[in-house]
């Protein structure tokens, strides 16, 4: 309970800093450090702990199996809405905040041993989907073109992905560097959550019916579909719990930023990111409780 309170406190600190005379691009600076230092250090520590088996495979497949299901739901939900609204939901609903929000929340709800699975879901699921599918959505609804070479370049030179491959190839790091990696890794949760809080946006004129439907899909329907898929596959309980929680994370801030920058229903996109984080602080513990009862 204390850890969960700490998560809320860090988010509130970030929100409070919105009123402070913060440097220009304060959140981007925090994100830069997290992406280039904190997250790679965490990857080097945690990824070698993963034992690749059917459970790990199912964990990686879930976000990709959910993607066409969510796309179909969005197409149905937005059949009477303009294209820019459809484009916004195609970005922010399939993609969850599986690292900045996912890591600290899963750590709190399931413990340290769950983090390697979180990283697998995030890097081979959320990150790849953002890089490939997210770019395709923006190209389809904004530019009308699709730059495959640029997408692959961004993927191959993304620092956490590079260190992920390094950790998979070389395994556990030498003991002499482990303490220093742990120090760098410990910065991930506080910096990520303060950045999330600082970036949260509320208010604006939105279609509240569509907004509510979208939140239900993102925070309730997606994790229950994930549970059904993995339960049917007989997935290891810990991997199953991680995948279900990760699939029920609020919308990815980066996906929301892409939607806003492209002019895809900016107020709706911002509301789904901001309010989604708040609501997920209720739904994720409830989902964890239900899984404990069912497994």
CATH architecture: Up-down Bundle
Discrete helix count: 14
Radius of gyration: 18 Å
For the residues shown, what is the average pLDDT? 85
Explain the overall architecture.
Helix content is 76%, strand content 0%. The protein is mostly helical and 295 residues long. It has one domain: Na+/H+ antiporter like fold, CATH 1.20.1530.20. The protein is globular, with a radius of gyration of 18 Å. The two termini are 22 Å apart.
Short description:
With 295 residues, the chain is mainly alpha-helical. The chain is built from 14 helices and no strands. It is globular, with a radius of gyration of 18 Å.
Structural topology:
Elements: H1 2-17, H2 26-46, H3 54-77, H4 83-92, H5 102-110, H6 115-143, H7 148-156, H8 159-170, H9 178-185, H10 188-199, H11 208-232, H12 237-247, H13 253-261, H14 266-294
Helix pairs in contact: 1-10, 2-8, 2-9, 2-10, 3-6, 3-11, 3-12, 4-6, 4-13, 4-14, 6-7, 6-12, 11-12, 11-14, 13-14
């Amino acid at each position: 309970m204390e850890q969960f309170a700490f998560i809320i406190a860090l988010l509130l600190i970030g929100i409070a800093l919105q009123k402070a005379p913060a440097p220009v691009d304060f959140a981007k600076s925090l994100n830069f450090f997290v992406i280039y230092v904190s997250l790679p250090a965490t990857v080097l520590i945690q990824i070698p702990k993963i034992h690749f088996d059917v459970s790990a495979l199912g964990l990686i497949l879930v976000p990709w199996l959910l993607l066409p299901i969510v796309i179909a739901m969005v197409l149905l939900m937005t059949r009477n809405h303009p294209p820019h609204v459809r484009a916004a939901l195609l970005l922010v609903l399939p993609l969850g905040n599986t690292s900045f929000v996912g890591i600290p929340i899963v750590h709190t709800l399931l413990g340290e041993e769950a983090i390697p699975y979180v990283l697998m879901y995030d890097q081979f699921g959320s990150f790849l989907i953002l890089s490939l599918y997210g770019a395709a959505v923006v190209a389809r609804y904004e530019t009308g073109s699709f730059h495959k070479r640029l997408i692959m370049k961004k993927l191959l030179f993304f620092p956490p992905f590079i260190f992920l491959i390094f950790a998979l190839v070389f395994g556990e790091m030498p003991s002499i560097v482990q303490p220093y990696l742990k120090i760098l890794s410990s910065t991930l949760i506080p910096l990520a959550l303060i950045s999330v809080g600082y970036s949260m946006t509320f208010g604006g004129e939105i279609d509240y019916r569509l907004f509510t439907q979208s939140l239900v899909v993102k925070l309730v329907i997606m994790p229950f579909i994930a549970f059904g898929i993995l339960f049917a596959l007989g997935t290891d309980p810990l991997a199953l719990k991680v995948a279900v929680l990760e699939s029920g994370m609020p919308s990815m801030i980066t996906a929301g930023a892409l939607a806003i920058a492209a002019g895809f229903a900016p107020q709706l996109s911002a509301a789904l990111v901001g309010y989604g984080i708040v609501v997920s602080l209720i739904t994720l513990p409830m989902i964890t409780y239900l899984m404990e009862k069912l497994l």
